[in-house]
Amino acid sequence: MTLKTFTFYTIVPLFLLASCKDTTNAKKAPVQPQKTIVTDTVAESRKIEEEKEEFVLTEENAIEFFFNYNKTLKEDTVKLSTNFGDITIELFDDVPYHKANFIYLTKKGYFNDTFFHRIVKNFIIQGGNADNVETGRKRGQIGRYLLPPDTRKGHKHHRGTVSMPSSEIDNPHMLASPFEFFIVVTKPGSYHLDGDYTPFGKVIAGMDVVDKINSQPVGQGDWPLQNIYILNAEVIK
User: 86: Cβ–Cβ under 8 A, 6 or more apart, which residues?
Assistant: First the structure.
């Protein structure tokens, strides 16, 4: 992130000079109130803070950012509140980039008002997208980036595993789409996904809700006939 430089303007009071014949009665012109200087300073400070908040993730900075962000994290559990009930997810500590990404997006409020937008019967439910303007706006503010796969930690796609789909655009290396995730419904699991997709967590409460969502009727492209909302996502511990 590059901060724009700025300049403080010094307000210099001007003094009116009295006539040489009446120096004893000379009067100074009113000095411009100092509060103007304070106001300008506050405005400049706000501008700097706004610029700091404009940090955007890119292909170039995402890995370094999440590497450092993960070091600050003590939380590993996220609760998704849906219109079918709550799903609680515990994130794996040894998949640091994907864990940090999921917590970061949760804290940014990204998942709020997105959908479980893809349902494949007895296989998966997939969330994190929506056909509304707000979701696109939030993605634009957060940034455009992909995450590398992290498939060698021994995690498998058991039932209840939370994993990250790969991007469909120009993606021979199976880089993960960071804004979306899927939950395995298959009993005992969908192990043909191992090695291609990155498991980064598991459902520890609410698999009945996952099953209920998976049972909903779908239309073309596996999109549910009725929207299934992620009303709120929050880091709980």
Answer: 79, 80, 205, 206, 209
Please tell me whether residue 105 adopts helix, strand or coil conformation. Answer: helix
Residue 78 CA to residue 90 CA, distance in Å, equals 7
- Give 137-167 pLDDT, tens digit per residue: 999 999 999 999 999 999 999 999 999 998 6
In this prediction the pTM is 0.77
Closest CA to 230 of 134, 165, 95, 151: 134
Q: Is the dihedral of CA 216, 218, 224, 225 positive or negative?
A: negative
Domain ranges of the chain: 1-54, 62-235
Q: Is-contact 165 86, C-beta < 8 A?
A: no
Topology given in CATH for the domain delimited by 62-235: Cyclophilin (2.40.100)
Q: DSSP for 11-74, please give it.
A: -PPP-PPPPGGGGGG--PPPPPPTHHHHHHHHHHHHHHHHHHHT--B-TTTHHHHHHHHHHT--
Determine the 3-state secondary structure of 9 from DSSP.
coil
pLDDT single digits (tens) 35-61: 433 445 555 655 555 545 579 999 999
